[in-house]
Each structure stands twice: as C-alpha cells, then as structure tokens.
Amino acid sequence: MLGLHTKTFKCLAAAATLSISATYSVSADVVKDTQNVLSEWISLEKQISEEKFAWVEQKEVIENSIEFMETEIASLKDIIKTAEETASAGEKKRAELDEKKEDLDEATQVMTAAVETYEKQIKQLSLTWPHAFRKSVETFLKRIPNEEQKETTPITIRLQNVVAIMSQFEKFQSVVTKDTGIQEVGGESREVTTLYFGFAYAYFVDGTGEYAGYGYPSSSKGWDWTPDATIAEKVSQLVAIYDRTVDASFLGMPAKIVTP
Predict the structure, then answer these.
(1) Domain boundary among 113, 128, 143
(2) Long-range contacts (CB closer than 8 Å, 24 or more residues apart) made by 88-91
(3) Is 139 a domain residue?
(4) H-helix or E-strand containing 49?
(5) Is 27 a domain residue?
(6) Disulfide-capable partner of 260 in 7, 46, 71, 217 (CB 3.0 to 4.6 Å)?
(7) Contact present, 137 and 199 (Cβ < 8 Å)
(8) What pLDDT, on the 0 to 100 scale, is given for residue 131?
(9) pLDDT at 140 (0 to 100)
(10) Which among 237, 234, 239, 230 has a CA at the least distance from the CA of 179?
(11) Is there a single domain that holds both residue 120 and residue 217?
(12) What pLDDT band is residue 4 in, cutting at 50, 70 and 90?
C-alpha cells in the first residue's frame, strides 16, 4: 500500500515537473518572440526616423530648388520679354533702314545719271579748252572712268572729280588768265604771251611786241588763232595792265561772240 502511494507520488511529481518544464519552455519562446518583435519594431522606428530626417532634408533642398527655378523662370520671362521688345524695335529699325536704303539707292541712281551726263559734257567741252586751262585739270580728266572702270569706281569719287573740274572751270571762266607758251599760227611757231578772258576770247603777243593776234574756241579743233599785227601794240599794253606795270585804261579790242 505504501509502495502504491509512493509510486503515485512519483508520478504526480514527474507530471508536475513536466508541466513546469513545459510552462517554462512556452514562456521562454514568448519572451524570445517578444524580444524579436521589439527589436524589429525598434529597427523599424529607427528606419522611419532616418527616412523622415532624410525626407526633411530633401524637402528643404526641393523647396530651395523650386524657389530657384521660379526665380530663373521669372528671369527668363523678363529676358524673353526684353528680347521680344528688342526684336520688335530691331524689326522697326530695320524697316526704317530698308526704307532709307531704298531712298539712298534711288538718290544714288539719280546722282549716277547726273554724274555720267556731266562726265560726257566735260569730255566734249575739253576739246575746246585752251592749254592754259587744260593742264590745270589734266589729272582730273584722266580720272574720268571709261565704260569698264565705271563698275569699280565709286560714284562719290566720280562726283568729287566732276566737282573739282567744274570748280576750276568756273574759276577760269570768271577771271583773266595769263599764259606763256608756244603758239603755232600760219605754219609758224612762236613763244607768245596769251591773255584768256575766260573761255570766250583770248589775245596773244610775242616778245618783240610785233607779232600778235586773237583766238576763240572751236568745236572741231580746240581754239582758232588768227594773227593780227594791227593789235600788237594794244595787246602789249593789255598785258602790261594785267601785270600792273602801267595804269589801267580803256582799250578797244576786236572781239566776236562765238558758239563752239
């Protein structure tokens, strides 16, 4: 009987031990699982915190970038507006310049036509010019371009050349000009002093005061010279008056109106 109780007691003790062991095992697993959960939760919270901090930093960078881009966009809009206004002003200016160019081209054509007319007339008139005048404009006459040279000679240069010749022409036409040179009349060559009254008329006399005459322009061969010994004394006196070696006085000289 005692042995039965003892056996029973042992069985109960063993069962209790197993129960305690089982309970301890279960409790250990729960604790371990809880620790794992807590560890994961802490890690997750840390990750969330880090990502949140990174997001705050990124947000600040993004906001700064947005602000910068908005400033840049505003600046670009101003630049575009200014460029459009400048382009508009440029187009207007170009239109004005195009209009002025058209006016200038038209004026240049008119001026070119006028210059060519003057050049042609100068060439024709130069055939009747006396040597005393021609030698003073010889350089300008050589500058009158031929047909091939007209394309490469600026109209301004041609105009200046024409003006220079005409200025000398007007000057010669308005004064009495004295010239000394060889005069060939009637097959004889003599050194004579000639007084030109513009391009209208001239009188000449040689050094002896005996050979004299007069001349006038001819359309065919420059000037026609006619010897006239009867006016030698008057021409000599006329030369002296020009040189201011004698007082001026009235002299009757032969003359006629000539249209070359």
Answers:
(1) 128
(2) none
(3) no
(4) helix 2-125
(5) yes
(6) 217
(7) no
(8) 85
(9) 95
(10) 239
(11) no
(12) very low
Helices 2-125 and 155-173 cross at an angle (nearest 10°) of: 30
Last-in-domain residue among 95, 128, 161: 128
Please report where in the chains the tokens 């010889």 appear, as a residue. 138
- What pLDDT sits at residue 114? 93
Instruction: Match 């908005």 to its residue by tokens.
Output: 70
| Lookup: tokens for 153 | 């000679």
Residue 253 three-state SS: coil
Residue 62 or residue 168, greater confidence:
168
Q: Count of domains in the chain?
A: 2
Q: What is the pLDDT of residues 188-201, one digit of tens each?
A: 788 999 999 998 89
Enclosing domain of residue 45: 7-128
Q: Which two tokens stand for residue 227?
A: 């010897």
- Residue 186: pLDDT band (50, 70, 90) is low
Q: Establish if 163 belongs to a structural domain.
A: no
Inform me whether the pLDDT recorded for 250 exceeds 90.
no
201: its two tokens: 């008329």
Same domain assignment for residues 92 and 196:
no
Q: State residue 137's pLDDT score.
A: 94
Residue at 239: amino acid letter: V
In-domain check, residue 138: no
- Cβ contact 155:112 at 8 Å: yes
